[in-house]
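In the laboratory, one determines a bound structure by crystallizing the protein with its ligand and collecting diffraction data. In a computational setting the workflow is compressed into a single prediction: the sequence and the ligand go in, and a structural description comes out. We illustrate the idea with flavin-adenine dinucleotide.
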Amino acid sequence: MASTVRYPIPPSFIDFAFKLTPIVIAVIGSLFRLNDYVFSGSLLRAANLKSCCDTFDFIIVGGGSAGSAIAARLSEDQSIKILLLDADGDPNPFTYLPAGVIQTLKHPETDWDYKTVPQNGSALGLVNQQVNFPRGRGLGGSSNINVMIYNRGNPRDFDRWAQVTGDARWNYENVEKYFHKIEDYNGYWSRSGYHGKGGPLSIESVNYAPGLNYVLDAAKEMGFEIRDMNQD
Ligand SMILES: Cc1cc2nc3c(=O)[nH]c(=O)nc-3n(C[C@H](O)[C@H](O)[C@H](O)COP(=O)(O)OP(=O)(O)OC[C@H]3O[C@@H](n4cnc5c(N)ncnc54)[C@H](O)[C@@H]3O)c2cc1C
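The predicted complex, in structure-token form:
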């Protein structure tokens, strides 16, 4: 009797297919403009405001990264009433997919879709020499449409703000502790001494980056050091 030979699907293929799914969804979504259907269900929380809450201790205009962080911190005191206002509603599901950013850029519910003024010496190939300048709109703001690279500001910018304002509290040396405090860091560089644990912001290294090693090897070969990008 002939035996049946089974060819199991290699686990590495299943893993690959699983990780590719969000990218496929985002690309198909782009092609069929699925975001138009998803966005049309966007909920404006203002509609849910109860008449009980017509006075507030704090009104925060702009529910992006900064406004939301301020609201979250203030709300730790439950006796405080806070109104967090934004120009649009809840984040669209595509904002949860890194590749979903394609869906959100230039969409009127998630992107203010600014353009720079016409440039003089650059953007020579662009219409009117104007560069697209996306800024996020709706709860989450630009964090909904960014590409999730955990990149702190340049220490020299902080030092310069301290100089310009005459307020030494802006020096990077003084603000760095707040970067540590906000982090729950679980990335490659945990031991670099530049990160914190237990804060509200979870940071991880990307767990699927096909081909990344080739790029890093090439960079090393050219003499670049591979290190924590948030290091001094
Ligand atoms: C396309 C893109 C990619 C990026 N990639 C990265 C990255 O990989 N890594 C990184 O570190 N940073 C990245 N950034 C930058 C980062 O996302 C922003 O610096 C950060 O989110 C800004 O936070 P914010 O609170 O200052 O402003 P925002 O998050 O922009 O929030 C401002 C909020 O105010 C609201 N608002 C504005 N005017 C009004 C009004 N009149 N009434 C009510 N609400 C209003 C807006 O709708 C918005 O929600 C990226 C930004 C963009 C646009």
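The first strand starts at residue 58 and ends at 61. Keep in mind that any predicted model is a hypothesis to be tested, not a measurement.
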